[in-house]
Amino acid sequence: MKKRPSFVQATAPIFTILLLLGIGYGVFHLRIEPLLITAVIVAAIIGKSLGVSWEEMQEGIVEKITKSMPAILILITVGILIGTWMFSGTIPMMIFYGIKLINPNYLFITAFLVTAIISTFTGTSWGSAGTVGVAIMGIAMVQGVSLPITAGAVVAGSYFGDKLSPLSDTTNLSPAVAGSNIYEHIKHLLYTTIPASLIGLIVYFIVGKSTYTDNAFDNEKIEVMTSTLMTMFHWNVLLIVPVLIVLVGSIKKYPTIPIMLISSITAVILGLVFQSMSLENAFLATVQGFNVSMVTAGGFDPAATPEAVQELLNRGGMNSMMETTLIAFCSFAFAGVISKIGCLDVVLEKINKKAKSTGSLVLTTVLSCVIMAITTGSSYLSILIPGELFKDVYVQRGLHPKNLSRTLEDSGSIVVSLVPWSMAGVYMSSTLGVPVIDYLPWAIMCYLGFIIAIIYGYTGFAIEKINSSSNDKTTNVS
């Protein structure tokens, strides 16, 4: 007979995974996969004691992995995309001109603003980080600028648009769950997103100006890098076409994977035409990633390639995403087991009962979303489950649903990018080449938003009441 877990039983797996990953991964830098599997074992033992069969827990694991497959397929396709864009010279060209045009002192600001603009127009954080984000990381590497700070700015900028764009899935999901509409949701989000972004930009400006001076850059190294890139590749304006295909496809909301594959095929053709690469190496680039040994340009000796150039260009391919995929499988195994046990329902109900004031309700909502992000690694579950739990509570207390939808967005889908074992976390770390723990402090907008939301909750600022304006009278709060 299956029993409902007590609060202690429900929280045990959550504390276990936080302890294992916090100490094992954060302090001792142990591999994430065995730590996640250990947490799965602990959760399974508790589930067995509650009468949950292994078949049921296995069913939960399969359900979570099945739901994650579209994201995993995108992840693998991004590996193909990066490998072929290197093969064609698309990313090297973006890096080359970026080095020429971008002042290193303002690279952090540029990283945030460029990715924010791209993600706002496309509605995708992954697409923004996987295209211009990769090029910006290459520029940072060449200029000797901090990679963790650059990656943090890229992630924050990418999620700026993912948060505010009407084309974003989570921006549509949050108001749908809470009972508001997308346009009032986006407008209400500006109260938390704009201050968080401005504070982030100020930090990027101060850190960039105080840490990096003209004398701090190795101009000789930069000259070697740029001259090597010019020797290796032939620049042509058509090399930007693969990027345009992805951006237009995202804006038009065409299916992601076919668009990425079309972009990759285009990049291969451009590599064959403009870089005189071989078809055999094109196929290798899609699987194993690009390697400087593939370059056949006259006057270029792959054996004499500076190590820094190899580190910059040797990347991409499906194989590069396999470790990320394995982490995702282990993460969803944990999420599948605790969902079948019923742990999250017990924890969230307990938290809800403790919320008495508006401030404590917002704080409770934030904590619920963060717990969901940490334990499931899913931006959708981080919005859906707390949204369903708190939807009626907000209305009963006379609070407009857009307060809930804003908080769900601030602390659900955005925070997932800061969880090392989430799909978003492993995607960003794999794509940008920087561990989540390293870029986390610098993805300022991603965590400052929910901190500001909590402050608003306790002060009452930017907290809208139901029917407090004429526009609210027609709002659907059912």
Percentage of helical residues?
over 70%
Alpha-beta classification:
mainly alpha
Helix-strand string: HHHHHHHHHHHHHHHHHHHHHH
Describe the largest sheet: none
Query: What ranges have pLDDT less than 50 throughout 5 or more consecutive residues?
Result: 469-478
Give the total of beta strands: 0
Count the helices. How many?
22
The proportion of residues in beta strands is under 5%
Mean of residue pLDDT values? 85
Number of domains: 2
Tell me the span between the first and last alpha carbons: 36 Å
**What radius of gyration results from the CA coordinates?**
23 Å
Shape: globular
What does this structure look like?
The chain has 478 residues and is mostly helical. The protein has two domains: 7-67 and 322-473, no CATH class; 70-321, no CATH class. Helices cover 73% and strands 0% of the residues. The protein is built from 22 helices and no strands. It has helices spanning 7-25, 32-49, 54-88, 90-101, 107-122, 125-143, 147-164, 169-178, 182-211, 219-232, 241-251, 256-274, 279-287, 307-313, 322-341, 343-354, 358-376, 379-396, 401-413, 423-432, 436-439, 444-459. The two termini are 36 Å apart.
